[in-house]
Write a structure and sequence with these properties.
By secondary structure, the chain is of the alpha+beta class. It contains three helices and four strands. The longest helix has 37 residues.
Length: 118
């Protein structure tokens, strides 16, 4: 038989792990829903007004830029199921410090066209 103190500790750990798992699932669902909205709407319809579209042979690419005063160049990239807007606060801060900063939405995430890359 386990002592009561050990049983209570294991029960508390199990409850915490279940709660953490539930929060993780909820966070994934929220981020996935936001990404789905960006991936199914046309980029031009929902893209932030402070962005810029760059035409390429495969489709338009959406960028956010700051600074652009011939300072030190910095490129910021995003990961899977993310977009360039996650860098907005950092872009603003670096732009104010005279860094030429750009971030690009990599298809199929963010606002860039859904490119058929072969």
């Amino acid at each position: 038989m386990m002592p009561n103190a050990l049983r209570k500790l294991l029960r508390t750990i199990a409850i915490l792990l279940i709660g953490l798992g539930g929060l993780t699932v909820l966070a994934i669902l929220v981020f996935r829903q936001a990404a789905w909205m960006r991936e199914t709407e046309t980029g031009a319809a929902i893209a932030p007004e402070n962005g810029r579209w760059v035409s390429t042979p495969k489709g338009a690419v959406f960028t956010l830029e700051a600074g652009l005063r011939n300072g030190h160049a910095i490129a910021l990239t995003h990961g899977t199921a993310a977009w360039s807007g996650l860098w907005q606060e950092t872009l603003d801060m670096l732009g104010a410090e005279d860094y030429d900063t750009i971030t690009v939405d990599f298809a199929p995430f963010g606002f860039s066209d859904r490119m058929n890359v072969e």
